[in-house]
Amino acid sequence: MSTRRIALLGATAGLGRALARRFAARGDDLVVLGRDPTSLARTAEDLSLRAAGRPVGMARCDLLEAESFAPALERAEELMGGLDLVVVTAGVFATQEELERDAEATEHLLMVDLVRTIRFCEEAKRRLLHRGGGTLCVFSSVAGEQARRSSVLYGAAKAGLTRYLEGLDLRHAGEGLHVVTVKPGFARTSMTEGLSPPPFAAEADEIAEAVMTGLDRGRRVIYAPSIWRWVLAVVRRLPRAVMRRVEF
Amino acid sequence: MARSRQRTEELSGWGRFPVVRGVVHRDEDLSRACAGAALTRGLGRSYGDASLPAGETDIVACSVRADRILALDEARCVLRAEAGLSLAALEALLTPRGLACPVVPGTAQVTLGGMVAADVHGKNHHVAGTFGRHVRALRLALADGGEVEVTRETDAELFAATLGGLGLTGHILEVECALMRVPSAWMIVETEPVTDIAATLTGLAEASAGWPYTAAWTDGLARGSAAERGYVLRARWAERDEAPAMPPAAPRSWRVPPIPLTEALVRAHHGRHFARAARRRGPRLVSPAQVLHPLDAFAGWNRLYGRGGLVQHQGLLPGPDPGPAVARLLATLAAHGGRSWLTVSKDFGAAGEGLLSFPAPGVSVALDLPGRPTTPALVDALDALVAEAGGRIYLAKDALTRADVLRRMEADRLPRFNAVRDRVDPERRLRSALSVRLLGDAPAGGRAATAAQRRRRETPR
Ligand SMILES: Cc1cc2nc3c(=O)[nH]c(=O)nc-3n(C[C@H](O)[C@H](O)[C@H](O)COP(=O)(O)OP(=O)(O)OC[C@H]3O[C@@H](n4cnc5c(N)ncnc54)[C@H](O)[C@@H]3O)c2cc1C
Ligand SMILES: NC(=O)c1ccc[n+]([C@@H]2O[C@H](COP(=O)([O-])OP(=O)(O)OC[C@H]3O[C@@H](n4cnc5c(N)ncnc54)[C@H](OP(=O)(O)O)[C@@H]3O)[C@@H](O)[C@H]2O)c1
Question: Does the predicted model carry a pTM greater than 0.90?
């Protein structure tokens, strides 16, 4: 596999960090994008050392500041002399109860996970298409597959994101844009800290491994861990009357 | 937002005794995780209650997500990293570069912070000292929330108290330490069979006179003429021309099914293992993991001890001639009907600067005792003997030693350690289940344990 030029939004923590380390170990060129310059610098240095000293670039990019998207991606292209893959793992989460208590938090979540993630993807898409193609790999969630009582709002944001990514694929596949939607199940990261891990809860590195395999195989949809493909195949068929009653 | 969620979970050290409930804060940002926490823990490989909260209302920060390597100067052999970096990850990083960590404990599943806070020793203590000797600087979050860079120059006393200080002087955020250059990625190991404990100690002393890595294993379950049989292990890094150019395969591990073993099964295993070791002659070329972290090949082996857990008693029998005291220790064990499923001895070199560090000249004997209702009484007897011999116990392994016994063993050292805590944490905001048990810290508020619960907690099943 030849070296890829990868820009990652969200590599400072959790699933993004685990995935970035796998790219680094494999020898890919990396630029990390994120909101906190200190954390970005530490992440870039860590990845560089894990990549046997290859420099890892960084650029500031905050999903709450749409103006930061274009300069960040531009900088990534500059630093690597091109761009083959853009990975988006940045996102926020809150439980349904937390969001119902706090309208501001609800708006923030919809803004970050849906509105601004889509806007970032639009910018990334534009740049990749301009170069003749490339891969856009975005973390949505199994929560976007089927409405559930316990995640109405987060689920809606992820459902919207998933549908958007499907649309992008339909519209631009012919032009060389490869859109990959990652649908992780529950993972033990800081995002889910304090929640009781449900069945099939995974470690960040297991998710990263599944994503690496999926990317290598050219998959457009990656369930991680893969068991979720089958779980959802069943859950999606449950009638609404049943979903109304189940607790999860 | 995540911090608004508080979930208590079951926590224990590697020995799975005691088991308590507590709230854990995990975060990539260790400063954030430590805010308001009474203690920081790493991978929980200390055996007893050193990494456990003083009560259900105390928060424990967990460092393992703070695992970024911050700087690696290969020319000067210096590393700086966040405290949650695991030794396993560090070794994977260093091996291809011809570097190694100068002191490593028997498992690679520990964090840098844990290595500092227990001031760990390895099989090379007689030449390399403890890990603390190689630490250059620490970034600490103190009890008052302030963060400081601590070195031997800026605050020698706080630095020395933090080495082996079991997290009670501050939350270790970052560690800067020296590395060592190694001639190859392989080791040469030899084993020398021995038939009794006297021969074990002589063999150990002889081995340490010529080899950088030594330890002795004794079959604590053998009976009759085989009793006290064991072997002395000696190892060194292979020179470049002795070793294949290829590095050894990355260490692998098998998850052990969590089925409790019986003593008979362990005895049968040891029968084969020690007989095989006795037949082996001459040097063997092996991967460093086989020498340095042999038990890591079996993930989750602590579960083999079943519900009662595993209590390790590691005592130091000091002085140039520890033989008689070691013999008395084993006799005490036998007299109490106690059996060590695995006994490891190691001779130590000079003590380091850590105010509460374990190693000092003499021999350390580690006994792996299955947790039973009789174990507390056994530990009392072993402790009495160690105290009598002028020795001490390794707090990172301890679960059952009593406060008055510790005060006797550490009469000289505790005041200095307490003085540092008086200065940096007069209110004792930092505390652990161990510091409540042994150092007189107040237990955390919340539901007080009933007498029955306390008894259950204090006595292994
Ligand atoms: C199989 C096995 C073999 C071992 N062999 C050896 C050996 O040969 N030599 C030896 O010396 N030890 C040995 N140990 C013990 C082990 O090395 C120590 O207990 C070490 O401290 C464990 O590191 P940890 O990251 O798991 O720390 P934990 O067990 O999580 O914590 C240990 C102590 O360090 C404190 N601590 C941890 N991280 C921090 C931090 N960031 N800031 C402040 N305080 C912190 C905790 O509060 C606690 O008091 C062995 C353990 C096992 C399971
Ligand atoms: N964990 C799970 O169980 C799970 C399950 C399904 C789907 N997912 C999805 O997987 C993705 C990664 O989750 P995770 O568990 O890795 O989360 P995480 O550990 O909380 O990491 C979130 C990442 O997003 C970044 N981020 C947050 N807000 C941002 C903003 N405004 N601008 C830029 N970056 C921002 C964070 O940066 P900072 O370091 O600066 O905070 C961090 O790098 C998310 O999309 C999540 O919805 C997770």
Answer: yes
